[in-house]
Amino acid sequence: MGRLSEIAREENPDLPLLLLGHNMGSFAAQRYVIDHSHEIDGLILSGSGALEGLARAALPETAGSNLLNAAFEPSRTPFDWLCRVQAVVDAFMADPLCFEDLHPDSRASSSAQRRGCTIRPHCARSAAICRSICSPGSEDPVGQQLRGLHTLIGRYRDAGLRDIAFDFYPGGRHEMLNEINRRQVQTRLLGWISQTLEKLNDDDLRVSIALELQH
Predict the structure, then answer these.
(1) Nearest to 133 by CA among 188, 179, 90
(2) What are phi and psi of 165, to 5 degrees?
(3) Pick from 149, 150, 161: which is nearest to 120 by CA?
(4) What is the pLDDT of residue 132?
(5) Which residues does residue 166 pair with via DSSP β-bridges, in sequence order?
């Protein structure tokens, strides 16, 4: 991911760089921002939470249980936890590139990253310059029905990150960008991006003025 950020900066040297991570990508983004938040201007997390909560939910199914879908039983499919829109769930199940469960090696790798995703005090100064937004559904099991999101937001605040926006959508599940209120979610996200770009432009202007005054 570090090299990808470098390429994006090289190809677009005058544009802000925002990182959006969804589901497993959101946890990769969490891990990346710990030491590299200075390389991006904003962080967007979707379908995310505290990694230790995901690790528990992703345990191998035992005795016919499905922890991610448990809150939605009796359910139409094993993936009702994804979304309230049946067509979205059916498309996921029909997609040959989607999978029912994590490969054992992937699960082990995710579990090994649990401690690494806890932002450390020495990262506070770096993290504080990065703006972020979380857009979870209140019923998303990956975010532990918001408990994991509250844990994550608390950790970022403790580390010094103050510019955090979050929208909690009642009744929403995991795929908020595809949920029944997706237009609302998309509009709010685009609004946050626009506000972030305006702030960045204002910050650049203030820096420019400060440099001119120093001269």
Answers:
(1) 188
(2) -110, 145
(3) 161
(4) 86
(5) 134
Structure tokens that stand for 15 in this block: 């544009």
- Which pair of tokens denotes residue 46? 């979707």
Strands (E), the chain: 18-22, 42-46, 131-134, 164-166
Which range in 24-28, 38-42, 123-127, 160-164 is most confidently predicted, on average pLDDT?
24-28
The two structure tokens encoding residue 10? 């090289």
- Rounded to 10°, the helix 2-11/24-36 angle is 80
Residues 6+ apart with CB under 8 A from 78: 66, 69, 100
Q: Give the global pTM.
A: 0.81
Which two tokens mark 43? 């962080």
Q: What average pLDDT score do residues 159-181 get? A: 91
Q: At residue 171, what are phi and psi to the nearest 5 degrees?
A: 85, -10
Query: pLDDT band at residue 161, thresholds of 50, 70 and 90?
Result: confident
Residue pointed to by tokens 């599940």: 173
Distance, CA of 200 to chain centre? 21
Taking Cα atoms as reference points, which of 96, 93, 112 lies closest to residue 104? 112
**Cα 190 from Cα 53, distance rounded (Å):** 28
Cα–chain-centroid distance for residue 160? 18
Q: How far does the chain reach from its first CA to its final CA, in angstroms?
A: 37
Tens-digit pLDDT profile for residues 91-146: 999 999 887 665 556 555 555 554 545 555 444 444 444 688 888 999 999 999 99
